[in-house]
Amino acid sequence: MEMMTLHLLILEDNQDDAELAVKELERKGFNVKWTRVDTKKGFIEALAEKPDLLLADYFVPFFDAMAALQMYRQLKLEIPLIVYSGKISEEIAVECMKSGATDYVFKDNLSRLGPVVKRALEEIKIYRKNRQSEEALRESEEKYRTLYDSSRDAIMILSTDKVFLNGNPACVKMFGCRDEDEFISLTPTALSPEYQMDGALSVEKSQKMISIAMEQGSHFFEWKHKRVNGEEFYARVLLASIKLSGKKILQATVRDITEHKKLEAQLRQSQKMEAIGILAGGVAHDFNNILTTIIGNAELALMNVIKDKSLRKGIKEIKKAGERAVSLTRQLLAFSRKQIVQPKILDINELLTDMEKMLGRLIGEDIEMLTIPAPALWQVEIDPGQIEQVIMNLAINAKDAMPCGGKLTIETANADLDENYSHEHGIEEKKSGRYVMLAVSDTGIGMDKETHEHIFEPFFTTKKVGKGTGLGLATVYGIVKQNNGFIWVYSEPKQGAIFKVYLPEVKKDADPEKKEKKSVVKLNGSETVLIVEDDGLLRNLTQNTLQRYGYKVLDAENGEDAIRVCKEYDGRIDLMITDVVMPKIGGREAAKRLLPLYPQMKVIYMSGYTDDAIVHHGVLEPGLNFLEKPFTPKGLARKVREVLNQKVDG
Question: How many other CB atoms are found less than 10 A from the CB of residue 210?
């Protein structure tokens, strides 16, 4: 195969990229003599060597392809100029072609370079031979027309005084016109709500953008547009100044970025939610230790202070404040889906029946409450405490929306949903399947569209300062999402609101634990208990509590220390109470090493933290004895007695 000799001038600031282009051409049969330049001066000097072809990178710091094209036109060079670059948009490609480039090639697809160069050389050979500039112009126009007609972006041609001259098929479709004639009969003002909003300010703004495009050749910006039916959308616009028949006109390439904007907003919201979730999970471990110590010591102090009423009142206030902090922490963890859960198979109707009296007291006498349970309701799998939180928070939200009284309705139903239902109700998940629906509706003040868009955001509240944390509905949202469900909300100002919670149906037998458990009456004991906890204050509280109830107590500050304590102790150990997340050796590993030495020893794991060895995605491993932080001294004593009373298998 005879090699074609090619004298090549490359405008490129990267030596490696230039060499790759040359190697590709050599691979395609060219014998390449080449010069690389990256400045205007170098470009001009190299032109004196009369190269056969120019290869120009679109992005060169001081003298790029567009600048070369400008000089190319000024000097009326009759050699091909090919633009090559990384990914550039269709609009920029069109701009390059209209500025005189012979063709363009992407750097990640250099296999096109050889055929493109061959075609360019053949074209210029014909051009030089026939000197028929009309043919070159026709081909350029055909390329542009192909891009113009096939572009998915709207391309419109305007005069400098903002009169539409043309609009491509995508433009007609984007603005909802019948045909091109209808489009060019409109004005930019009619297709932009910003003109109606800002008036003279928007006119000045658009004129400034036109001036920039005229001076610089092109200008990128974002603008809100309006279709002929009134629907608004966001668009990214490339406004370019071009010449047609010797007259300057404007070409606007418009891309609808409404969905992109929505995704950006969803991403920002998701990142905000995740950031709070990480914060909540991160502080939960230490914060729960602190709260356990505060509440526990307050409770122990109350046991000691019998007669001094003023002192008891102060201690009770400390305990009450601690309990409020516990509630707030649990809401944060529920919202962030970092709450430790123990799911059970349950019937929401039965749970509602158990909660009815409590809900009645919660909402007050001026609100009528009606429950409408569906017959033969399907079962769900969820932590009972979680679904109680959902119902209570929705009921409290409804109560606050009816300051002058009203009607609260709680309803359940079986729902077999398809994707059409999701689409009609604007549910993003589009989850078809069988769900149990829990609806809570009120006759209260309702909410407007703006409020509706923010109700599930953490700390968002319309209540006065001190009247709400803004975590109630965020908690509901977190719990429902954690259990693979979704929420649909409808409300209008002064028309009340309805919240519909959908939880997936589960086809399993009811939990065997549903049988009545005998409550532990006797809390005292004499067994030996090993406490393993790295928080000194919490370890002391646990030790003091169990000693008060008669137990013999050994203590260790981590798993490694627990192994040492056991080696030094000769007697029997009946129970190990251990935190899970600790330095050196954690609770799970310590238990694994100690159980062979004490086969009869029971283990209780303490934690308020979801990212540890006994919890997977927030769900507790089955069969483990677990004490969630924060806990009270009485709760600790009850759990210890309950576990010690368990029969040992085998």
Answer: 18
* Burial class of residue 280, CB neighbours in 10 A (0-12, 13-18, 19+): buried
Taking residue 242's Cβ as centre, other Cβ atoms within 10 Å add up to 18
Q: Which of 297, 171, 282 is nearest to 237 (CA)?
A: 171
Kindly state the average pLDDT of the residues 258-282.
Answer: 71
- Cβ proximity of 167 and 187 under 8 Å: no
Query: Is a pLDDT exceeding 50 seen at residue 650?
Result: no
Structure tokens at 304: 């000691």
**Exposure letters 591-612 (e unless 16+ CB within 10 A, then b):** beebeeebeebbbbbbbbbbbb
- Higher-pLDDT residue of 29, 199: 29
SS (H, E, C) 333-387: HHHCCCCCECCEEECHHHHHHHHHHHHHHHHCCCEEEEEECCCCCCCEEECHHHH
pTM of the entire predicted model: 0.45
For the chain, what's the residue count?
A: 650
**Rounded-to-integer distance, Cα 642 and Cα 58, Å:** 75
- Name 235's bridge partners: 223, 256
pLDDT at 579 over 70: yes
The DSSP letter of residue 3 is P
- What is residue 211's predicted lDDT score, i.e. its pLDDT? 83
Helix ranges (H only) for 364-510 are 384-400, 419-424, 449-452, 472-482
CA angle 283, 583, 618 (to 5 degrees): 45
CA distance 360 to 354: 11
- Helices 90-98, 65-75: inter-axial angle, 10-degree rounding: 20
Cα-based torsion angle of the residue sequence 171, 176, 178, 184 in order, rounded to the nearest 10 degrees: -50
Which residues fall within 8 angstroms of residue 78, CB to CB, at 6 or more apart? Answer: 124, 127, 128
| Cα separation values, 151 from 34, 93, 228, 242, 547, Å | 36, 12, 21, 18, 80
Q: State yes or no: pLDDT of 427 exceeds 80.
A: no
Q: CA 346 to CA 399: how far, in whole Å? A: 26
Residue type, 77: L
Say which range, 55-69, 284-298, 578-592, 628-642, has the weakest mean pLDDT: 284-298
Q: Which residue has the higher pLDDT, 94 or 647?
A: 94
